[in-house]
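Journal club prep — side note

Before the paper discussion, L.F. wants everyone to see what a predicted structure for a comparable chain looks like in token form. Sequence:
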Amino acid sequence: MKKNLIFFLLFPFYLQAQSFFTLPDSNAIWTIQNGYISNSTVNTAFSVPVTNADTLIGSFTYKKVFVSSVGSPFGNGYAGCYRSLTNGFTYYVPKDSTQEFLLMDLTAQQGDTIFNVYYHDQGSLSPRIGNFKVVSTGLWSIGSYNLKYIALEDYFNFVFDLYWIEGIGCRFGLNNQAQGNFSNWELYCMSAIDTTWYPIFVANQTCQLDLGMNDHNSSSQIAVSPNPFTNQISISNYQSGYQLFLYDIFGRLVFTSPVSPAGKVELPDELAVGIYLLELKDEKGNRIGVQKVVKE
């Protein structure tokens, strides 16, 4: 009971009889980067304001979403609004529209087909509607909490896949986005009410809104090379007693190791190719820095 109470107080979403957490009511940030580009920049942010977040359309109350961008085609200003329900459904109304579309359905199970899902074009907010097959479902670990995720693919097997994460949004940010050969926009950081929830849980810290910063150098206190890596990482600006932690895209700790006196860490050969979050802590457990790294 005590743990559930703490969860309710910390996690900034409604908890009722239904088991799903909604998207945030206010004070939320999603920052986006282009994952295909080496040394890519975090140049787009979606946010729900701290105050005056509500807007009424018809008989429903929605949360207003704003976009800020530097050097990206998403533009700036009002982007739309959503209403997120504890029954697992989230609906979205794009800007310049009063029509509601399905954004997420967390009740879906493996093998289901979800019809008429809202998404937008690559690098723009132009709305589209598509059908998706549920490839798998599972739990995504964030701190001591487990949130449902759903992996989907385009019904017609186009180059298009989605990950929905309960209470967080989509792997491309807040909204679903079409993916093709020219873009791989992905969620870099998500925070709500002074707590970071993606890619890992960090209390009393929010996503940075320094748009245009270099993703791989976002932590000034550590420098990791090579990146991408194969089976070894070198860390500069390290001190004795530092410990490395490596998390997968679902927030699961997959590897940990002390940093050698030479500033090097050997990674296991069986580590899968993909994107990871590297966290460095000192001997007292204090965080030194975090950096996204790629295993090739």
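L.F.'s comment for the group: Residues 2-214 form one domain. Keep this in mind when we get to the figures.
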